[in-house]
Design brief:
- This protein is 12% helix and 37% strand.
- With 343 residues, it is mostly beta strands.
- Strand 8 and strand 9 (149-155) form a beta hairpin.
- The longest helix is centred in the N-terminal third of the chain and has 17 residues, at 30-46.
- The chain is globular and about 65 Å long.
């Protein structure tokens, strides 16, 4: 038994020496080990320091750390655990480093509640507080693009920018629209509103004399040509009623023109379907809708024996005058040819 204790003591000592903690042989015990481990954890916490927290608008924070975060720390799954707030506020997407800054991040959040003071905690350590912003994003108008989808328009010329234009990850990749804001979010003397990631955001459509309908952001539909036109889709199976006037509202945006009268929009018509490979299809539409309205849409593939597979559009893949779309399937359909398709 004494031999076992001796071996354990030597192992503990080796472990502690590896941390840089000097420990005399005659005081080596579990209490000392616990104190050393606590010392290490304290050093880890002190390694991360927040120097500034600002709420830019109701869905966007700007957080400055003393040192840049690692790429691993800002991966979505890690960020969801590391970036914590009280009062039910959460982040909605990856924190992105602001162009021209070493350790300042644009952080998308769920809508902040006006008048609320929030506490920011990073990796379990309280980092500071901030006041919710009562500023909403300025949108020009809301309008219909299909029978179940609307879009909101804002413009760079109105000093409203998608955050993709001002973050390091997209610098030099925005067709000349990327630029650097200063510490006050000004460019050439003009202050800009920043639309952070809209992932998971919603708006409410209220028909005249009807019940409100909630529409949710359709991923990857924010334009990059200076006119931001994010799309929002009604719940599955619901459509706008032609002739009815709708008013759009939200807790994160203000509208210059928030009403539109719905019309009946012809559905997309598939002209051809070609196999790109065993799990990818190219779909060409009869006409180019000139809008990113296909994301999350599906088509059904039917084999001669009646077997069906569903293909869903995932990413922006427009190509040429017609809308050419790539759809990825979870299963191979190579043994299903010939196929029929339905929308």
């Amino acid at each position: 038994m004494k031999k076992t204790k001796k071996h354990l003591s030597l192992l503990l000592l080796a472990s502690m020496l590896g941390t840089g903690v000097a420990v005399p042989f005659n005081v080596l015990n579990m209490d000392t080990v616990a104190r050393a481990a606590s010392h290490d954890k304290q050093d880890d916490r002190e390694a991360v320091e927040v120097t500034s927290i600002k709420s830019l608008n109701s869905i966007t924070l700007e957080i400055t750390f003393a040192e840049p975060l690692s790429s691993t720390e800002v991966e979505l799954n890690n960020a969801l655990k590391n970036f914590e707030f009280d009062n039910d506020l959460t982040i909605r997407n990856v924190p992105q480093r602001k162009t021209g800054f070493e350790s300042t991040y644009i952080v998308p959040t769920t809508p902040q509640e006006e008048g609320t003071t929030y506490t920011f905690t990073y990796k379990g350590e309280e980092m500071g507080t901030f006041e919710a912003s009562d500023e909403k994003i300025n949108m020009r108008e809301a309008r219909q693009v299909s029978n179940d989808t609307i879009e909101l328009e804002s413009r760079l010329g109105d000093r409203v920018t998608d955050y993709g234009n001002v973050i390091e990850a997209y610098a030099g990749k925005r067709g000349g629209l990327d630029f650097e804001l200063d510490e006050d979010n000004r460019y050439r003397g003009r202050e800009y509103q920043i639309i952070s990631s809209l992932r998971g955001t919603q708006v409410t459509l209220t028909p005249r004399n009807g019940e409100p309908i909630v529409a949710t952001y359709v991923p990857f539909t924010q334009n990059t040509d200076g006119v931001q036109e994010p799309k929002f889709r009604l719940p599955a199976g619901e459509e706008l009623e032609p002739g009815v006037t709708y008013t759009v509202s939200s807790d994160w945006a203000d509208f210059r023109d928030a009403t539109f009268t719905a019309r009946d929009v012809d559905p997309l018509t598939i002209q051809s379907v070609k196999a790109k490979n065993e799990t990818t299809l190219d779909v060409t539409l009869r006409r180019d809708p000139r809008e990113e309205i296909f994301p999350l849409r599906r088509i059904t593939l039917t084999a001669p024996d009646g077997t069906e597979l569903v293909a869903q559009y995932k990413f922006t893949t427009r190509n040429g005058a017609t809308e050419r779309l790539k759809l990825w399937m979870e299963k191979s359909w190579s043994r299903m040819s010939p196929i029929r398709w339905s929308q």
